[in-house]
Structure formats: C-alpha cells, structure tokens
Amino acid sequence: MPGIFEALPGIDVPVASISKGLADMWEGNASQGKPSPGHDHAKAIQVNFVLHLGLKTDAADAVRQFETAVRFSRRYPCRVVVLCPISKETGTMEIKAKVYGECTVGKTPEDTRCCEFVILSYPRSAREHLENQVSICLSTDIPIYYWAHRFSEAAKLADYKYLLTSAKRVLIDSATAPADAEGFPWPKPQNVRDLAFARLLPVRQAIGQFLSRYPAKSIGVGITSVELAHGSELAPEAKVLLGWLRARIRDCGGPDGIGTLHAAPQLAARKIEINFSYPDKRSFKWSADLADGHSVFDADYGTGHAEMTAAVALLSPENALSEAMFF
Amino acid sequence: MAEPERHPFLQGLSKHRGAPPTVVVIFGASGDLTARKLIPAIYNLSVDNLLPADFHLVGYGRKEMSDDEFRKIAAKAVKDFSRREMDDKVWEKVAANTTYVAGEYDKKDDFDKLAKHIADIEKGVGSEVQSMFYISTPPSVFFPIIENLGASGLGGRYLGKPHHSKVIIEKPFGKDLDSAKALNAELRSVFEENQVYRIDHYLGKETVQDLLVQRFANSIFEPIWNRNFIDSVQITVAEDLGVGTRAGYYDESGCLRDMIQNHTTQLLALTAMEPPGSFDAEALRNEKVKVLKAIEPVNLGPDADMARAQYAAGMIGGKQVPGYLEEQGIPKGSATETFAALRLSINNWRWQGVPFYLRSGKRLPRRVSEIAIQFKKAPGTIFPQKEGFNLAANTLSFQIQPDEGLSLILNAKVPGLDTRTQPVKMSFRYATTFGSNTPEAYERLVLDAMIGDGTLFIRGDEAEESWKLYTPVLKFWESEGTKGMESYTAGSWGPEGADKLLTSRGHVWRQP
User: Fold this and answer.
1) pTM for the full model?
2) Chain B residues within 8 A of A111 when measuring between CB atoms
3) How many helices (H) and strands (E) does chain B have?
C-alpha cells in the first residue's frame, strides 16, 4: 500500500531546487499546449496554505483532502504546501519533494488562475528542519493558513509551533480531531477554527434566520429542554450544533448549558431533529434531512403557528475551508 | 450611528445573513431591468442562502397576468440572465413565494389591493414583515407610485422599527436640479430619508468598493493622495454600443444626464472625498456631499470646461455603424450629446490645482470604465529626458469594468550594461486573484437595502449637489441648440474639443 506522499500526484523534484522544479513544470505544460501561467497575471496568489496530513491519514483520505485543496485553490489561488509525515522511522533525515500545478481556464486569458502545490515528505526526525523548508516554499508577505488534518494527538502539534503561531487561522475538524484537541493549549486560540462548525453555516443560518423573527426572550426565558437527535453520520456536527444552540439560548435569556444530544438509530444517517420544550404553548421543532437538503420548521411563539420548509445542506469541504479561513 | 443590537440567533453570522422577513414588490415587473438584473439577483441571493427565511416576491404591473404567468417570466429571466445556472430546487423555493398583482400606478384602489396582498402574506408568515418597494419603472410614474405608497399606508409600515418599509428607486433622480428637488420633496412627503435607497449600480460593483479599500486600507496611498503628488485625474466611462432600442429615452436624456451626472460623478466623489470617520452610511455620504460641494462651477465661457459631441458613422469591432442622427427614432437635427467631457476643479486643501477630467460617450472604441490617477513626474535630474530614458508619470488606474482590477505604471531599468529606463505595468486582476464569479452589483445592493444599509446608495442631498453642478451646463447647451455640437467618428475616442480640454493644460487623454 503506498504511503500518503506516494499517493499524491506531482513531479518528484530535489528539495534544493523546488522553485526550478515549479518553473520546469509550467514550462513543460506550456510546451505541451496545456494551460499554464503564460504571464504573471495567472499566478496571482492571495493565500499561503499549509495542509498537514496527520499520521492518521491513509492514502485514500490524503487524496481526498488534496483534491479539496485543489478545488479550494481554483477559487482562491494559493501556494499550497502539503506536509506528509512518514509514520515509520526510516533512519534517515531526508525530506522528499514533489510539485504539482493546475490552471483553471476562465472566460478570457486574464481570467486564467493557477495554483502551485509543493508536497513534502519528511521523517519525524526532520521535524526541526521543516520550518525552514516550509518557509521558503511559501510566498512572502501574504497570510498563512494552516490546516491540521487527522493528527494523532494534539500534543504532537506542539512540534509545529511556528505554524500554529504564524498562521492567521489554524483549521482543525472536530469530526476527526483527537480527544485532546479540545483542551489543547493552542498558542493563539482565537485563530483556531473548527471545520465542522464552518460546515454547519447553512444550518446556523437557516435556524438563525427563522428564530430571529421572534423576540429573544420568547425563545430563551422559561425554556425547559432542548433535544437534539441525529443520525449516525452526523455525530460530530450535532455536537458542535448543540454547542451553538446552547450559546444562543443563553443569550436569549435561557439557562446555561441546556440541551441533550441523542444518537438516534431510528433516524436516517444524515437527519437531525431539534426540539425546544416550554411549560406553556410555545414550541419549536426543526427537522432536517441533509442527504436531500430539505428541512421543516414548526414553531409557535404566541403569534400563531408557523410551519415552513427551507433548503439546507452542509457546506462542501472547499466552501467550509473558505468559511473557516476568511469569516 | 450605532448598529441596532442583533438578535442572539444572528450573532456570529455576517450582517448580510440576517435579513428580516421581507416582501419585495417590484413596480415595473415586466420590464427589462427586472428580467436582466432584479430577478437574477434575487435568485442568486437565494442560491447563497442570503434571503431571509420568509422571503416573498411580488411583481406589480399594469399588465394583467396570473401568478403562474409571472413565475414563468421570472424563471425565464433566471435562465437567460443569471450568472449561475438555474438550480430547479432553489428556484422552486423562490417561485413558491412569488406572486403578481396587476394594477395601475395612479390608482389608490390598486395600491389598497397591494396592501391587502401584503397583509395576507404577513398573516401567512405569522410575524411582522418588512416591505421593500423597488421602483423599476420609467420616471414618468415615479410620482404616482410614491403618492399611492403614502396614501395606502404602505410607505409608513413599521416606521421606527428596523424593518420599516423601504423604497428603492432607480435613476434618473430628476433631469435637472429643480426636478431632482421635486422628486426628493415627493419622496420626503411619504418616506423618511433612511427609508429611501437611490440606486446607482456602479456603487455595487466590487471594484468601486475596492477603490475605498485601496484608498483607506493601504497606508502608502493616503500621504500622496493630494495636490502635492497628483498631477491629474481622468475618469472614463466608455460604451461601444449606440443608442440601440433606447433612442426615445436617450434623446431626451443625453450623455451628461445618463452617465456623467450619476456614475462618473460617483466615481469622482469616491476618489476625491476625505477619509470618512467610519465605514458607516452617513459618514461616507457626508464626505461625498462635501467634496461635491467643493467642486467649482463649470466654466461655460471662453476656455470652457466642457465639450459635447454626437457620434458620426464609423466602424466598431470591424463593422460599419450609423451615426447618431441616422439611428432609428432619433429626430433629425437632434441637439442631444452622445459624448460629454468635463474639466473640473475641486476647491479644497487637498485638490486645489489638480484637474479632474471626466468623459463618457457612446460608440467609443470599447466598453471600459476606469479611474486613472496620474502622479507628478519624478524630477528626473539624474535621468534626463534624452534617448534611452523613457520616463513615464506613475499612473495608478482602477479598472471598474471589464477586466476589473488595478495597475500601476512604474519606471524600471531595462536589463543591459547601459542604464536605460522603460515604463512597466504592475497589475492586479480581480478575476485572476479571486475568480470571476463574483456577485453582481444588484445582488449586493438589493441585499444591502434589505438589511437597511444605505452605504452604497445615494442620499437625496448628494443627488441635488450633483445636479447643482451640471444643471447650468445642461441649460447652456439647451440654449445653444446644435451650436458648438461637435461630431466624432464612431469607434474613436471622442471629438477634438475633448482633447483640447486637456492639451490646454499640458495633458492628454489615456486610451484605456
């Protein structure tokens, strides 16, 4: 079975001449008539993006995340550095590199956008040299975004403090993050974003828009229970969603920490149901099937019974990335 | 102005993601603008989940049609003009809440019918609903619509609350100072100023908003953004099209009214205004008004500050095109200008002595809108102007459309043993850096109005200040008839008189 570095596309280049490798790659593309940055316009870069594939990433997952980064960089032209740790100690300190590039052809030559990937494979013993290698692969003076994917322990990220501290945003995904991520002393916790929370944007937006029709106190004051049931595929998102609901209910004058989570085997894998209970006639129910993008609100806050449907789906991985990075 | 406190369930969502339940009523529902811009904008907002949970669209027009017929027209508009392909599921949701009311613009009974229709929608929603009236009609019916919105009580719904009624009105905001004042008076008789959103779609363009960001978020520009460093400013809004099917409207209007008084002057105001205290609607618009007030009256006499012309037959894109006077629907002997150029002076500390050259016209070589800031030349004592030293003035140009972006002309050494210089262009292109599928101006503006943000809309006094500047020019041209009207070949950059405005001050027009 190939390692994650071997599974990713790209052209092998010596680590000492990555820039030349990139230039040769584009030249090769151009000579074959493939899209390439024919002029500097096409290489405009607005983001330095470091995708760190953790030790829990297998080859298929690495390819999936790589493809997400490619799709993201079509929209936001990037210089992407992909870090691929070698799980087994090889006894050498050697770092290996590959380069990959892709251009998106637009309506006009000026609308052609290209992104560049530098993929680095490194043994654990080379960690302390990685900072310098990564820094020369990135584009100077523009912000760095660091996505740590499927890392085995948050504590191990302490080895990459320079990325955790210099990145404008550090992205993790609570759906795959290890248990110690929540309590990890992130050097800049204000910069850490959860991709699961970002994925839930349309859900937060739909619920937020619907409930904002009612006075905050009607929602929060006197609320007796908040039940959130979810299908088997949505446990991480449900946990994050409950956290958001708790904070919003508290801000509406409700009690702190209200709400329970139920893994509901009877629900379809991508269904979520929310139910607010009150001692009076007030009620709120929301049921969503994220597989078909359909949701139904059913509420009564004393101004009459309201029932409404709304389209809702989780953000795609690349859109979740941009949401977590820029908003 | 402090922002109203947000509902806890909207905390953490951007301001654009929390519009209140809204009914948008479009007057002129079967019009061209509705089909080309408004319906596609609403559809795209829905794709992005930016419309409120309870969003209703009501078409209003004289033509009798059923809800279904209007939905079909709207669906066709999305298919024909949306920047993104139609997603049936998204459209179904919008269409389910789309209805049509047939009525006259001058009959109060018909507006009462509309009011009942909105009340029924509100009843269905089960909470107070914001009404937004989009007047997308010819100006001849602005007044009756405004009056009837007042008489029917629709204009005053929920006054004092953030979801009060709002009215969006399309240009022209009058045809001279008197009519602009009359329109403002009419609007104010029904609405408070903060309910009125005068739309100039140029302000919704990404690059126009980027102009503010470039000016005020980059510390390198502000210290040199003044008469000490800037030599002149050129603003061009050029079209390659002729009058097309708008002959009747255009011949009544002309270039100065159609383009200069609004789009071009807005670009000038944003370029020349002082930094506002905040990015708040009132702060920004106050600064725009201040700079408009500081523009000196246009000199109409000898060495006049303006030029006008009509296009004559010529070639555009390799094809022969007729002259203005040969266009269908244009009266023989028309004295309407299809090109106007002005040289304006701003009498304030920052801009004293810096000419602002404005030009706009039809049948120019290409469609382009740009603002070009030409800086003073370097003293050049060590690079004397002789063979081998080709020193250009540094020019920062903001391209508003097409190919949105900006470029800066710098002087660089040509590689080689001898020291020779050459101007080089450093460019930033929106499409290359951010992709071209950015929201249309109308999407941004419709949503801004829905959430009550007037920053990118024109305030009444702003419209009046602009007319104050141009009305004397219009009156002068009217009094002159065709006397002094120049002509320019279609496909050229305009008449000789426009060139003279610049050459007399040692400048030349750019050819963007």
Assistant:
1) 0.84
2) 429, 431-432, 436
3) 16, 17
In which residue ranges of chain B is CATH 3.30.360.10 found?
203-435+460-503
Q: How many other C-beta atoms are found inside a 10 Å radius of the C-beta of residue B296?
A: 11
Of B510, B484, B506, B507, residue with least CA distance to B497: B484
HEC string of B272-315 equals HCCCCCCCCHHHHHHHHHHHHHCECCCCCCCCCCEEEEEEECEE
pLDDT in tens, B326-361: 999 999 999 999 999 999 999 999 999 999 999 999
Is A264 in CB contact (< 8 Å) with chain B? no
Homologous superfamily (CATH) for B8-170: NAD(P)-binding Rossmann-like Domain (3.40.50.720)
> What is the ipTM, given to two decimal places?
0.86
Residue A33 pLDDT level (bands cut at 50, 70, 90)? confident
Cβ contacts of A110 on chain B, cutoff 8 Å: 403, 429, 431-432
The reply to whether residue B89 touches residue A293, judged by beta carbons under 8 angstroms, is yes
Does residue A248 belong to the interface with chain B, where contact is any CB pair within 8 Å? yes
SS3 content of chain A, % helix, strand, coil (to 5): 40, 30, 35
Cβ contact A213–B19 (<8 Å): no
Q: B418-469, pLDDT tens digit by residue?
A: 777 888 888 888 877 776 667 888 999 999 999 999 999 999 999 999 999 9
Domain B203-435+460-503, CATH class in plain words: alpha beta
Query: Which residues of chain B are in CATH 3.40.50.720 domains?
Result: 8-170
Mean pLDDT for the stretch of residues B241-263: 91
Question: What is the token pair recorded at B368?
Answer: 């382009």
Task: Give the nearest partner residue to A208 out of B10, B93, B432, using CB atoms.
Answer: B10
Topology of the domain covering A200-317: Dihydrodipicolinate Reductase; domain 2 (3.30.360)
pLDDT band of residue B2 (cuts 50, 70, 90) is: very low
